[in-house]
């Protein structure tokens, strides 16, 4: 018999080398299972040697026929050769029972399954084709299962790699956080170091600037002192040159007079009389100024007013009054030609504050104003004295800060009079004019008739709208003027000569206690003076100043207590507290300006 060429009934889509997805593989497996379960079991005959390549399959069912049945079978099978028959009987037919369900009970098989002829003749090509298809299905299933297993293993490996990657990523993130934290701590430490270094540099720069400013101030002070010395030397030279010229002029005049006396005695007598008259005029002015006060005292005594003052103090007051009267015209404040300088000086003094820079700038402005060429020196000094002392009227004297302002005025007065020495006489004359206790001097009315409006004007009462001010207001201004006077006296600046310093204050205190009686006004003036200058006087005179205080305690206070009125009791308490609390050992408030002593900051 001939053989036919058959092809494997396997769809080409089951090529295992194609790139399938997991869903495609599962769908194909389900289709194969459905096909296998739907097909009926088909036993197969034993393939020939050429089909199986001479290899017997394991677990094949082989059926053999007895010799008794060979004849009957041979009759039925016609046309089959003996060799083929033997081969069929000897090898048997192979079949599978995959589609049948087996059971342990024999009763289920009896009579329920149709008899199946195992040796039924089948088409050989079809059997081979089915067998090959079966083998191909099994092979494809095995390959698919192996690929599924490989994919599962790869998937698990990928999961493990992902978990490991996440773990490494988390560990890396934690390490980065730790590194960032360390860097942050490091940067904060660096920032703190840089900030500390910057602050140190700023402080060092500030200290250097302060040293430069202090050095500049000292240089300016030294330069001003050098200028002052140079000016003094020039003035001394001019004075000597003037004296020499005057001496030469006198010699020439004497020679001329001697020559003229030879000519005529009458002409010589006239010339001598003229010279004597000129000399006497100068001396008469001084005698007249000294005698004016004594005549005034005698007039006051005749009018019922007694003057308590030392002769030296009265002479000094008369001399200053004569200086102002002779050098300065009356009502200079009303003259238009001096109004400009009056406003300029008043503006500078109105800006005065108890600070170092302010005091220095105000003093410089006033010195320039007094050195002006357009305004005569005496008039400028008189305007300055009037404006600096009238600050008592423009400021609140009851305020606690008035003491600070008084010390600032004292420094300004000293700085100005150091450069313009003539200004001190005008200052003292103005002090004596506005307050008689700066002389020191006291006027006492001997009777009730003497206590008239003129008497109160003499002792310093001011009029407002035709009415005299109250005694309380008068005593307030007395205290303010004496404080300002004492602040000027106690002011000291290193390297600057004071024309009216602590020595004059010591003299004033002695004259005050020796000549003036114990009254309410004198007690207020004495307490104000000690409050401002007591510390400086005790520092300089020590035990001698304590003796002065003992005199006040033993003599002045008992005499004051005997008068016994309300104002006197307050004055007594103030002096008693000053002595008992030893306030003279404490630096007065306001002596330091902007935390630094002016004398140290400007001229050290």
From TrEMBL:
<keyword id="KW-0906">Nuclear pore complex</keyword>
<keyword id="KW-0509">mRNA transport</keyword>
<dbReference type="InterPro" id="IPR012476">
    <property type="entry name" value="GLE1"/>
</dbReference>
<dbReference type="GO" id="GO:0051028">
    <property type="term" value="P:mRNA transport"/>
</dbReference>
<keyword id="KW-0539">Nucleus</keyword>
<feature type="compositionally biased region" description="Low complexity">
    <location>
        <begin position="289"/>
        <end position="302"/>
    </location>
</feature>
<dbReference type="InterPro" id="IPR038506">
    <property type="entry name" value="GLE1-like_sf"/>
</dbReference>
<dbReference type="GO" id="GO:0005643">
    <property type="term" value="C:nuclear pore"/>
</dbReference>
<dbReference type="Pfam" id="PF07817">
    <property type="entry name" value="GLE1"/>
</dbReference>
<feature type="region of interest" description="Disordered">
    <location>
        <begin position="228"/>
        <end position="302"/>
    </location>
</feature>
<feature type="compositionally biased region" description="Basic and acidic residues">
    <location>
        <begin position="228"/>
        <end position="288"/>
    </location>
</feature>
<keyword id="KW-0653">Protein transport</keyword>
<keyword id="KW-0813">Transport</keyword>
<keyword id="KW-0811">Translocation</keyword>
<comment type="similarity">
    <text>Belongs to the GLE1 family.</text>
</comment>
<dbReference type="GO" id="GO:0015031">
    <property type="term" value="P:protein transport"/>
</dbReference>
<protein>
    <recommendedName>
        <fullName>mRNA export factor GLE1</fullName>
    </recommendedName>
</protein>
